[in-house]
Design goal:
- The chain has 15 helices and eleven strands.
- With 368 residues, it is α/β, with parallel strands linked by helices.
- The chain has two domains: 199 residues, P-loop containing nucleotide triphosphate hydrolases (Rossmann fold), CATH 3.40.50.300; 158 residues, Rossmann fold, CATH 3.40.50.
- Strands 6-11-10-9-8-7 form a six-stranded mixed beta sheet, sandwiched between helices. Strands 2-3-4-1-5 form a five-stranded parallel beta sheet.
- α13 runs parallel beside α14.
- The protein starts with a helix and ends with a helix.
- 35% of the residues are buried.
């Protein structure tokens, strides 16, 4: 008898909601195995410590259905003690708990963590996280922040010791996490734990479901009227594949920028947030590195006195273009009419040309 995860997958195929994809078979097998292992795992008791099971690490290019498979597994997982989080939301929570431990006196520590013993925040933080969920499911596991990299090995050693099971999706294989990062040798124990404690499965292939949707819907919506706003919103909702929006933190030259609307490795941002607020090239490079798809809304026709905003928009476009990212735009006008006159208008023509290229089928088929 198939498990609930496999049955839900087959039901989606039967309903015409998805097409069966042989490249997803190994990932489906791994998730079904985790579901079965959780069902048969001994229940913790007064004299029995909780025990986790071998988890799964599902990796592959964007748009391969990894998050859809995670959704099916999480809904079917036979434990009430579970959490499904974007990895960066989880790490922000970890850093807040660490800060609370370090800044609290004995009374505050006991009130929050139930103990005040010791100076090391990892054991009490791991205790609290294990109580919040014996099964942790992470979407978009990627590590770019040195503060995250330095804590992960010890944190997950403690979590695994407390019987936590981990299932994660990522665009990278585990051995490429935090690649070329500062002090990466201190991060290697975490990679070792991933490869030994989790079943590592690739979802290969060329089929990108998001590209098909982007091609069908288009990526440039103008003018900014109710019909195009609805189409823009619909495309965002479809590409999220049911994942709720969450905030993400991007580190730029030692400071942290918080973007409130992210999902599935995508960013949704307004023109005011992206180009009216003072930002430099480093901000846009960090955005392009972090997000494979950007939804930019509310782009107006720019008057000559808006040269600074036009320059920032051009810099954002350049960063996304060089990173081979996807861009969906809700704007008042077509690319060539966004900033036709004023200082640096001639230079903006290159940005308009790149925008035209980035909406083409060839670009959408080739980007990361």
């Amino acid at each position: 008898m198939p498990g609930l995860t496999r049955a839900a997958y087959q039901a989606k195929i039967a309903a015409g909601e998805i097409q069966g994809d042989p490249a997803q078979a190994a990932a489906l097998d791994a998730l079904s195995r985790v579901e079965a292992d959780l069902s048969s795992a001994p229940k913790p008791g007064f004299f029995r410590k909780p025990e986790g099971v071998r988890g799964a690490y599902i990796w592959g290019p964007v748009g391969r259905g990894k998050s859809m498979l995670m959704d099916l597994f999480f809904a079917s997982a036979p434990t009430p003690s579970k959490q499904r989080l974007h990895f960066h939301v989880f790490m922000a929570h970890v850093h807040r708990l660490v800060a609370k431990w370090r800044s609290g006196d004995a009374a505050a520590r006991r009130a929050m963590f139930g103990t005040a013993r010791g100076d090391d925040p990892i054991p009490p933080v791991a205790d609290m996280i294990a109580l919040e969920g014996r099964l942790l499911c992470f979407d978009e596991l990627q590590v770019t922040d040195i503060a995250d990299a330095m804590i992960l090995g010890r944190l997950f050693e403690a979590l695994f010791a407390r019987g936590v099971t981990l299932v994660a999706t990522s665009n990278r294989p585990p051995w490429d996490l935090y690649k070329d990062g500062l002090n990466r040798q201190l991060f290697l124990p975490f990679i070792d734990m991933i490869t030994s404690r989790l079943e590592v499965v690739e979802v290969p292939g060329e089929r990108d479901y998001r590209v098909r949707r982007l091609r069908a819907a288009g990526t440039w919506f103008s003018p900014d009227d109710p019909d195009n706003r609805r189409a823009f919103d619909t495309l965002w909702q479809e590409l999220r594949e049911g994942e709720p929006e969450a905030s993400s933190t991007v580190e730029v030259l030692g400071r942290r920028e918080v973007f409130p609307r992210t999902a599935q490795g995508m960013l949704r941002v307004t023109f005011e947030e992206a180009c009216v607020h003072p930002r430099g090239p480093e901000d846009y490079l960090a955005i392009a590195e972090r997000f494979h798809t950007v939804f930019l809304e509310g782009v107006p026709r720019l008057r000559p006195e808006k040269r600074n905003e036009a320059r920032r928009l051009a810099t954002l476009i350049d960063a996304l273009y060089e990173a081979r990212s996807r861009l969906a735009v809700l704007a008042q006008a077509e690319p060539g009419a966004i900033y036709p006159d004023g200082e640096q208008a001639f230079e903006f023509e290159r940005a308009a040309s790149r925008l035209e290229e980035m909406r083409s089928e060839d670009w959408l088929a080739a980007v990361r």
